[in-house]
Amino acid sequence: MKRMSIVGLCLFAVLAMSAVMVSSAVAGPPDFGRCQAKTGGKFSDSGCTKSSAKGKFEWTTTIAKNKFSASSSTLSTLETVGGTKITCKAEKNSGAEYTGEKTVGKIVAEFSGCETSKIACNSTGKGSGEITTFALKGALGVETPPTKLEVQLTPEAGVLLAEFTCSTIHVEVKGCVAHPITSDKMLTSSPEKFTASKGEQKPDKFSGGGADECALSSNSGTGFEEAGQTITATVVNEEGIEANAIT
């Protein structure tokens, strides 16, 4: 079996809205929020992207129902640049939150059916094939101006996103993982897709950043190795939420 430099399962987390960090203190777009019907509002469309002197909608970054969840029942694959792969059959997380105008948090992904080369993997205290990430936080930013957005996920505390074993092999995962998100639409649910090829995650940076600004790596005692993940999940919000690139 190839050495086990496996990547951030944790990351399947989408899953979420699932972002290294654009500071929430920076004013202006992009922002998480809601486009609400309001007579005399500043916008003419339900996405709050078209200004109007006689608008019918208003933008707010106040989110009263701020929780979201995510799940996937399709095969998730993690692959290092060296070719080591790990797969999980399903993933879920609940209790994640929009924590600010540009941030999400409390994302803890629970994977099941995880294995590599038919060897089951698990986090400490979990059953065979079960991997649970540490809590993750995310930052919203621009991937490609003006309206293509992404979220980058990193640990809420410490440097590790996940830690688990596959038989006698101990794996630590650190770094960052990014995924694109839909912009300028109010959504109660949306697909979240993480994409990678031969261990290279895409996207891997905010606009203006350097290559691999946001990248995963894992270590099984033989040194950290870059890795990427592929997974498609569905995110469900408590109420319609939008990532607005315009206001």
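The record above closes out task 2.4. Task 2.5 opens with a second protein, given below.
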Amino acid sequence: MDIYDRQKTIKLHTPKSVIVIGVGGVGSWVGLNFALSGVPKLTLIDPDIVEDTNLNRTPFRIKDIGERKVHALGNIIFERREDIALNVFDKRVENCIIRNLPEVVVDCRDNSTPLPEKLMEKVRIIGGYDGKNMTIHINPTPDTIWGDDETIYTHTPSWLIPPQIIANIIVGFICDGYKIEGEQIVHFNLKGFIDKIIGGEAHGSDL
């Protein structure tokens, strides 16, 4: 039986190839979600290793602690999709040689240093979070990605629900084939998001 039988009637616009840059809180779920959605070619880029503090908000396992994130996530993906063409780079994206440009690039890094121009052209949506506050950025440009070029990784309040929501929105946006012109930035928080869905009052949320 085809594992994708149940999603065929949904008529997803699953991209042929995706690069996910940064496979931490958001990017690990983005990579896994794309794989489970049937993307045939997936590239993961991240120089970091799995730490015990990652396990409260990512699909990584206890046995992955100390492993490179891209290799650990690759193993998790292969447990579910043996047919995927998976490439991993355990280094910074600036040090990677990308010979074939993908259909889609998702930038899930913790910093805002500019991507190489040809990769940036393939970025349609990114997202980030701080505690229960989330941001979705559609059609980002290098000048408006949050932070500045001096931004480095900082420890922020982190729990698995916000990064999962962001990852689901990103993959849903791509696979549902949204075509939105112009740049849009949306800020919202977890309570406002849930209130909106169930029809309750947003209680002053940004959503």
